[in-house]
Every structure is written in C-alpha cells, then in structure tokens.
Amino acid sequence: AFGGCTKLKQVTLPPGLKSISSRAFQSCSSLTEIEIPDSVEEIGDSAFQNCGSLTEVTGGRRLKKIGYEAFEYCRKLESITLSSTIKEFSGSLIFDECDCLKTAGPSSGDYNIKIGFTGNIPDMPFANSELENVVLPEGLTELNTSAFGGCTKLKQVTLPPGLKSISSRAFQSCSSLTEIEIPDSVEEIGDSAFQNCGSLTEVTGGRRLKKIGY
C-alpha cells in the first residue's frame, strides 16, 4: 500500500481496521511512530521492515498474529507492547537488527519490549533479536519453541515462578548467556533448549524436573 514511501512521516490508521498486510509500510524510512488501532488483528510479513526512523509502536491491544520480518531493520525502534491476545508469530526475524530493543519484561515495567503474554509465549517471537536482558512476567507457564533462539547478545534472563516447561530450542545459540536459574516449578526442558550456549557456566534450580530433552 505505502511500501517505499521514503518521505512518509506520519500515518493515521482508522478505527475498525482489521489487518495491515505484508509490506504495507516497508521501507518507509521517514516514519517515526505508528499507532495500531485496537481493532487490528494481524500485522503481515515485512509490514514495517526497514522503517529505519521508527521509534515507537503503540496500540494493537487485540493483535492475534505478527508476520515474518514485520519489524526487521527498524534500528531505532525503542518501544513496543506485545499484548496477551497474540497467539502466533509466523517465523523468526521479527525484531532482527532492531538495535535499540535491548530489554524485555512485564507491561508494568520500564522495558523496550513490554510483554503482555499470559499462559505461554508463542513460537519464535524474539528469535534472532538484539535483546540483552529479559525478565519474564509472572503467569507464564510455557516458553514455546525458539522463543529466544539465536539471541546472541542475551546476557541475563529471569524466569518466572510457576513456569512449567521450557520448550525445544528456547534459548538455543544464546552465546552470551552466562547463567540461568530454572524455577523449581519447571518439569520439562525440551530438545536443544540451551544448545550452543557457549558462555553458559552455571545452571541452578530445577528441583522438580521430570524430563530433559535431547
């Protein structure tokens, strides 16, 4: 729709909008902020990819799906909230090369990415992102596949009490992660969950673990 409009600085999206399709604002390099109407349920693949001046994304409280590479190369993006309604991230690289998204945590805190998920974190929301510090909110019971896989700058993770499962490849290739405390509520660690975490020196907790994967 507006892909490649390099001089586009401001966009007002209407209430009632349901979907922002693939590449809708791709390479709108002058766009600095966007408010997603709460009616929007889906953001398509590469919708805001390479919006190099984008600093803030607000709204989107009823989002259900965010597409592949949706915010890739948004190097100045500093603030986005992921609502509890999101159930699907279609592929990795959603926040790839978003250099300013360094922290993630509960919606009530001062984090670059505010995490509203309850129950479980869907597959691959943060894979290959630039995150360095993550505090996961209470109420989460499962980290799904590749939740933080390939986050090579991730140094610190706080897992919440009540977490039941760390799924396959959840922290695979998090090569800067040095230690992890597994809550005693965790019963299963999936296949390759911490594979290739080359700096990991200590794993503590996990007193009620029943299964450790391949």
From TrEMBL:
**Which InterPro entries does UniProt cross-reference here?**
LRR_5 (IPR026906), LRR_dom_sf (IPR032675), Surface_bspA-like (IPR053139)
A Pfam match: LRR_5
Q: Which Gene3D superfamilies match?
A: 3.40.50.12480, Ribonuclease Inhibitor (3.80.10.10)
Q: Which ranges of the sequence are coiled-coil? A: none
Record protein name field = Leucine-rich repeat protein
Species whose genome carries this gene? Blautia luti DSM 14534 = JCM 17040
